Hints:
Elements: H1 2-16, H2 21-39, H3 43-53, H4 59-82, H5 88-94, E1 95-97, H6 105-109, E2 113-117, E3 136-141, H7 147-157, E4 165-166, H8 170-179, E5 184-189, E6 202-205, E7 208-211, H9 215-223, E8 226-236, E9 239-248, H10 258-273
Amino acid sequence: MIKFLSYIVYGIVKLISYLPLSVLYVFSDFIFLIVYHIIRYRRNVVTENLNNSFPEKSKEEIHSIRKEFYHHFCDIFIETIKLWTISEKEIKERCKFLNPEIFDLCKEKDKSIITVLGHYGNWEWLISFCAWRDAIYLPIYKPLHNKVFDKMFLQIRERFGARPLAKDDTLRTMLSYRSKKEYTATVFIGDQTPNKRNLNYWTKFLNQDTPVLLGTEKIAKKLDQIIVFIHMKKLKRGYYEVEFIPLFDNPKETAKFEITEKHTRILEDIIKEDPAYWLWSHRRWKHKRQASN
Length: 293
């Protein structure tokens, strides 16, 4: 029964994705009313995260950011659905990469690239990079338990030629491409919350003690790949601008935690500049730092 219902949802979502974004944003506004005012989805989590991150802001400012975040959150949901069927022409108009030639560094320096970003803007739309450059673009994802929905999201993320990479296969796949001397751009999300076994590094982030995953740094050093930060800026509803910021050409030469601190600080500055577009509903601070840490 669950599989049957999943396929029904799959079909409905596929049909909805053919609607123009102008119509889909009407759905988004309706979803916002339900999520924000009726269900109040993680309202307490979002409010607490904002209050702790910006103690200097007034109650009115916090509420304004919170409301804008939920509008954006609903838009991300709709925009991700639309990604399934959006044309290459439209996605290139709506999500512009300012310096896609950054991938050419691979051939120039004979190295692949590791890109790192946070849950900021609409990270799902970044798979459209393949519409700008013929590149082996590897966005890392966590497979869903529901096979039908996992298939749906894989089809969405494979648009324009991206090659989604299951989290547990990351290093093995990157090594495989290297052995074949193929240049890749692997996409790491740098603001994921570590599980309890990986609370190995803590830093101050948005005014709070925060554990940070070290996977990006460890793999970059192991494979000696160029590290680039992805800055996605929301210009207006449905329009984004993406800039690649080079960080390290030779990660093996960096000090311990230097890479992790660098990409964390950049993301923090971006969030502070325009806070509504980060994923505040994420339970980023569910782990508390112990005295021994």
